[in-house]
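Why do we bother with a discrete structure alphabet at all? Because it lets us treat a fold like text: something you can write down, compare, and reason about line by line. To make this less abstract, here is a complete entry for DUF2752 domain-containing protein. Read it the way you would read a sentence in a foreign language you are learning: slowly, and without expecting to understand everything at once.
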Amino acid sequence: MINEIFGFIKKLLGIGMPCAFHSLTGLYCPGCGGTRAVRELLYGDLRMSFQYHPLVLYGAAVVVLELVSWGASRMFRRPWLHIRQYNLFILIGAGIVVANWFYKNYMLVFRGVDLLPLLK
């Protein structure tokens, strides 16, 4: 069922086309592995999702944390329970993207290890 849903979304959004950045430079783009990370997250494989692109798992954790804090603030009628540190979450997410991008390209260029095909 997940394969059919994912296939429909890929066709609808045109996902699966070659990455222009990777085609031109031979390097990974900052989002490389993101689609595969979402697929693995939907399958429940958190380790593979993290290895493909850690931002996806981080984003899912932030959404769950936000929903729990919002629910707690509503249930206990305490608005201060609701997390409002959006700038911090965004900065951490940006740091994850940059670190992931640097690491994958470092391994590719300087170590000769193409990480994404190894994960398949």
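What the structure line is telling us, in plain words: The mean pLDDT is 84. The chain has one domain: 2-119.
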